[in-house]
Write a structure and sequence with these properties.
This protein is mainly β. It has 2 helices and 13 strands. The strands form 2 sheets. Strands 2, 3, 4, 6, 7, 8, 9, 11 and 12 form a 9-stranded mixed β-sheet that branches. Strands 5-1-10-13 form a 4-stranded mixed β-sheet.
């Protein structure tokens, strides 16, 4: 009888130790708990030039809960906006965020922006695109454990302003399609 009591006590101690060391959190990835999934795509309306290239460095969002912009995993690169027309788009962000309200998206551009008109490439100046970024305001609630898709629709025809003498300026006209 004493042997059974000792064996029972040892099993109880082992069980308690095992339970403390390998709790429920060890089998559930708590870092991913409560995340929302965000994808941002890029598309464009047609225009009468050969190319409109933007040098995308970083996409960030401002949420209701954040004090500033939160950088997102961005597929950085030079994008010819005219390649993404007539229902075509490209994925530029695929990331997770805590659930909540997105208030603004910011596109930070690099120095390699250009436009091709009649087979001639010209630099495309982007005021504040390289410093504070291009900001698109909208409100979208991201729900826990769900995917939010946002498409940024450039209107290249309205966005590109010819300054004369081969100079072009990008004053982005972008709508967010939620």
């Amino acid at each position: 009888m004493k042997q059974k009591t000792v064996l029972f006590t040892m099993l109880l101690v082992l069980f308690a130790t095992f339970s403390c060391e390998f709790g429920e959190d060890d089998f559930y990835d708590s870092e991913e708990d409560g995340k929302s999934y965000l994808q941002i795509r890029l598309t464009d309306n047609p225009t009468n030039v050969d190319q409109v290239n933007i040098d995308l460095l970083q996409v960030s969002v401002k949420t209701k809960a954040s004090s500033g912009f939160v950088p997102l995993f961005t597929y950085a690169g030079v994008y010819d906006l005219l390649q993404y027309q007539a229902g075509q788009d490209t994925l530029i962000v695929n990331d997770t965020l805590p659930p909540g309200e997105i208030q603004e998206v910011r596109l930070l551009l690099g120095p390699n922006n250009s436009i091709m008109v009649d087979s001639v490439i010209y630099p495309l100046k982007v005021p504040s695109g390289m410093s504070s970024g291009i900001k698109i305001k909208f409100n979208k609630i991201m729900v826990q454990d769900s995917l939010t898709n946002v498409t940024l629709d450039f209107d290249a025809e309205k966005s590109v302003v010819e300054q004369g003498n081969g100079g072009y300026l990008l004053k982005p006209v972008i709508s967010a399609i939620l």
